[in-house]
User: Fold this.
Amino acid sequence: MGLTERLTIPEEEFVYSGHTACGGCGGALAMRIALKALGPRTILVLPACCWAVIPGVLPATCLSVPVLSIGFAATGAAVSGIEASLKAQGIDDVTVVGWAGDGGTADIGIQSLSGAVERGHDFIYFCYDNEAYMNTGIQRSGATPSGAVTTTTPARKREEKKDMVEIMVAHHIPYAATASLAYPEDMIKKITRARSIKGPKYIHVLSPCPPGWRYPSEKTVEIARKAVMSRIFPLYSVEGGKYEIQRRNIKKIPVGDYLKMQGRFKLSEEDRAEIQKKVDENWESLLAKEGTA
Ligand SMILES: Cc1ncc(C[n+]2csc(CCOP(=O)(O)OP(=O)(O)O)c2C)c(N)n1
Ligand SMILES: [Mg+2]
Assistant:
């Protein structure tokens, strides 16, 4: 990473101090980075999720851009309507953004998101993925990874995590990507790229959660970085169907180094070996999609 790349992070803040997120909230940091790339001409749609309460109550909100709070399932419908309304008014310099949790994306909001993408509305949709329904007390979602303990999977989840990026790619979406708060330059580049493309865009940000994942709050960035280094959460983009992996040459670490930092994974050596096998297979499949296997 060169110096010029590091200097791409805008200094201006659009998330002010005084929000109500937990210490070390990955979702809060993800929003802070995202708004730096989105800028002030942004309308945010927030369904039910931690971020529906993090801003606080007007007039003491930490968000400096307009927000529409809507029902849990309706993010895709709301961004569609806002975009159509702006178009009717001849306003073309506003970025319409849906910002939802993993429950609001992979489960309850998936139909409105699917419709909005299929209809080709012009918006960016972010899923900040803390891998459970955190705002209501750590219930499992379709994006909770196999092996994780939640309050509704006390003996750990058995099923696999839904792959939202692949679901979006299956919609022929013009742009989809993963992003990490541990790699803010990469995240900002991706958001800037997404803003330059007309039509629906999808960005999936892994967002570690100290109380939900059971780790000390100062470890959020380290855990997010280890997710990328271990390849359990590879950084990649798919533009016009073309795959590209980012940060492919960073030092690879065993997935156990990522899992062991979190109290939610109570796994045997065999369990960890099984997860490692799946991570390696997924990486190979990503290389094949990129055409570099
Ligand atoms: C229709 C409906 N069902 C349930 C709820 C209760 N509820 C509010 S936030 C939430 C969890 C959201 O989970 P996720 O989308 O992953 O966001 P997170 O809280 O993890 O940030 C739930 C179940 C609701 N507000 N509306
Ligand atoms: Mg969640």
